[in-house]
Design a protein that fits this description.
single chain; 197 residues; Rossmann fold; three-stranded antiparallel sheet
Length: 197
C-alpha cells in the first residue's frame, strides 16, 4: 500500500506540469529511488522496488506522453551511502525526482536534494521532522507512533489509550502554482496532524 502511494505521488508530480530540472523539454522523466535493497531493512526496500516495477508493468511506463524511467539504488541501510547515491543520481543520471526510504537515509539526502532543487518523496520515514529538512521533501507515509508519555503526545492528547500509545497521523498537501517552477521556489505545503488514542 505504501509503495503504491509513493509511485502514485511520483507519477502525479511527473505529470502535473511542474518543470523540474527541465523535465518539460525532455521526453523521459527520470525517477531515482534510494532504498535499502540489502542490509537490515532490505525487506522494506524490496517491497518498494517490487511495487514500483509492478505498477509500471501493469500501467505502462508512459504518462502524459512522457516515458517514466525508474532508477533504483541500494543504500544498504547506510545514510552515507544514501547521500552519495543521491548525489550520483542528481549529477550523473540527471534525475527529475528522488525517492528516499528510511529516516537516517532521508535525513542525509536532504541537503543534496535542496542544493540540487530536486523534489523528493520520502516513503518510509515516520519521523515528523524529516520533511522539515528540505523544502523539496514530501512524505507518503502518514503513520507515526508516539509514546503516550512523550511531551508532544501529552500536550496534544492528554487522554492516551490504555496501552499508553497515541497514534499521530500527519498529512502533508503541497501545491505548486502554475506560474512558478520548483527550480525557482519550493512548493507551498500545508500540514495537518491528527492524534488518535
Amino acid at each position: 500500500m505504501r509503495s503504491r502511494i509513493f509511485l502514485t505521488a511520483l507519477l502525479a508530480v511527473a505529470v502535473s506540469g511542474i518543470h523540474v530540472r527541465s523535465a518539460a523539454a525532455q521526453e523521459t522523466v527520470k525517477v531515482g529511488i534510494v532504498i535499502p535493497m540489502t542490509g537490515t531493512s532490505a525487506a522494506v526496500g524490496r517491497e518498494i522496488s517490487d511495487a514500483a516495477k509492478l505498477y509500471v508493468a501493469q500501467h505502462g511506463n508512459t504518462v502524459a506522453g512522457k516515458k517514466i524511467e525508474l532508477i533504483i539504488r541500494d543504500d544498504q541501510s547506510v545514510p552515507d551511502n544514501a547521500k552519495r547515491l543521491a548525489q550520483e543520481l542528481i549529477v550523473n543520471d540527471k534525475v527529475n525526482l528522488l525517492g528516499a526510504g528510511l529516516t537516517p537515509s532521508a535525513m542525509s539526502m536532504a541537503p543534496i536534494a535542496t542544493e540540487g532543487k530536486v523534489p523528493t518523496v520520502v516513503m518510509v520515514s515516520g519521523t515528523s521532522v524529516v520533511t522539515d529538512r528540505s523544502p523539496y521533501y514530501v512524505r507518503t507515509d502518514k503513520r507515526a507512533r508516539l509514546r503516550g508519555n512523550s511531551p508532544s503526545a501529552a500536550s496534544t492528547n492528554p487522554a492516551s489509550s490504555s496501552s499508553g500509545r497515541v497514534t499521530s497521523s500527519t498529512m502533508t498537501i503541497c501545491r505548486q502554482p502554475a506560474t512558478r517552477s520548483l527550480a525557482s521556489s519550493p512548493p507551498e505545503c500545508i500540514r495537518r496532524r491528527i492524534h488518535r488514542s
